[in-house]
Amino acid sequence: MSREEMPVKMLGFIVVLLVCSFTKVLSLPEEMQELIDTLHRTCVGETGVSEEAIECARKGDFANDGKLGCYMKCLMEQMGCVSDDGIIDEEATIAVLPEEYQAKGEKVITACGTKIGADPCENLLLTNKCWYESAPDVSDRFKNKSQKF
């Protein structure tokens, strides 16, 4: 993997771990954290999602909030892992995972597929909820963390 690909590949892993919300716990390099913070600000700005809704999702409370789903879709679009109509590209999502996480990530991603909601944003909300619930050993570790994406 080239140096240029590394932030994108790590970002893919972070997205899969619930919409990039556990980055401080993963002790990312400062350069990568800056990239993630920029994407967060961009997607918050584009969608108008509240920090509170993102924080609730980190803890497993996926309120039916269209803005939260659109935030998740925005992040995944930045990764090239979702179509305009909110369908997850499973192969692309798995491919952006670091090699050491691909086996576990593949199981979760393929088991969940794309959960279909009323619109593309709801698809991402429901799919992220499935990922969260399908990896309790990962999500339980981060439920009580208060780091900012």
Task: Provide the low-confidence segments as ranges.
Answer: 1-14, 16-25, 139-149
Question: Which fold name fills CATH's third level, the topology?
Answer: Recoverin, domain 1
Q: What would CATH call the class?
A: Mainly Alpha
Identify the overall geometry: globular
Series of secondary-structure elements, N-terminal to C-terminal: HHHHHHHH
Question: Keywords for this structure?
Answer:
single chain; 149 residues; mainly alpha; Recoverin, domain 1; 8 helices; 63% helix; globular
What report would you give on this structure?
By secondary structure, this protein is mainly alpha-helical. It has one domain: Recoverin, domain 1. It contains 8 helices and no strands. Helix 1 packs antiparallel against helix 4. The longest helix has 18 residues.
Overview in brief:
May be a carrier protein for lipids. By secondary structure, this protein is mainly α.
Strand and helix map with partners:
Elements: H1 5-16, H2 30-47, H3 51-58, H4 66-79, H5 90-95, H6 99-112, H7 120-134, H8 136-142
Helix pairs in contact: 1-4, 2-4, 4-7, 6-7
